[in-house]
Amino acid sequence: MQNQIFRIAIDGPAGAGKSTIARKVAKELGFVYVDTGAMYRALALFCLREKISPEDEAAVSSAITGVRITISYQDKEQKVFLGEEDVSGLIRTEEVGNTASAISAYPAVRAHLLDLQRNLAASVSVIMDGRDIGTCVLPDAEAKVFLTASSGVRAMRRYKELKEKGIMCNLQEIEQDIIERDQRDMNRAVSPLRQAEDAVLVDSSEMTVGQVVSAIVDAAIAHGLQVE
Ligand code: DC
What we know:
Blueprint: E1 7-11, H1 18-29, E2 32-35, H2 37-49, H3 57-63, E3 69-74, E4 77-82, E5 85-86, H4 94-103, H5 107-120, E6 126-130, H6 133-137, E7 143-148, H7 151-164, H8 171-187, E8 200-203, H9 209-222
Parallel strand pairs: 1-6, 1-7, 2-6, 7-8
Antiparallel strand pairs: 3-4, 4-5
This protein binds 2'-deoxycytidine-5'-monophosphate.
């Protein structure tokens, strides 16, 4: 029999494969996958549309107060809504990702999304990914994983992904972008990206997707998850 509720927090830098892995772990364990980056991205999309500079903390903080971000699940896939609009597809651009990284440094932005994230994990077993899940959003999660990979490996994965979609890109630029995003996410004052003290470190640089999934399932079992 499975535990009533079990929460796996998975944090790590951009491009570490968190969403791919978390989606597979969720499927294997019958958990809900919660992608918190999508929520920051939805707020970033709002700022871009409203032409609010991501550098202007006061403008961003006041503009988002009335913005409603909601999450729903269709066929177990997370959908994110900006007001009534499903923006799940529109938020997957580099521009939105970089804007999300910039505005996520602001306390008002983080506070705006915290309850939503905690509520999603209040009544079902989840695997939630982001930058501060183990340290701030779910500090008492039953299992925590810090998933990383070298910037070179992360850049190459991203490069291949974009190429497959037929998008022109440059490997060095992608790596530079990843390094800058890491710096921003790790050095902000509020909820910076860092490994929680009780998180298991998984470096996926030399691992297959299957091996990473197994490592995370094993970490959950080691932390008390009962599987049939
Ligand atoms: O995981 P992602 O690339 O979709 O996240 C986009 C940005 O959102 C990321 O660079 C930093 C921010 N973010 C955050 O600050 N905290 C989270 N829990 C998730 C994302």
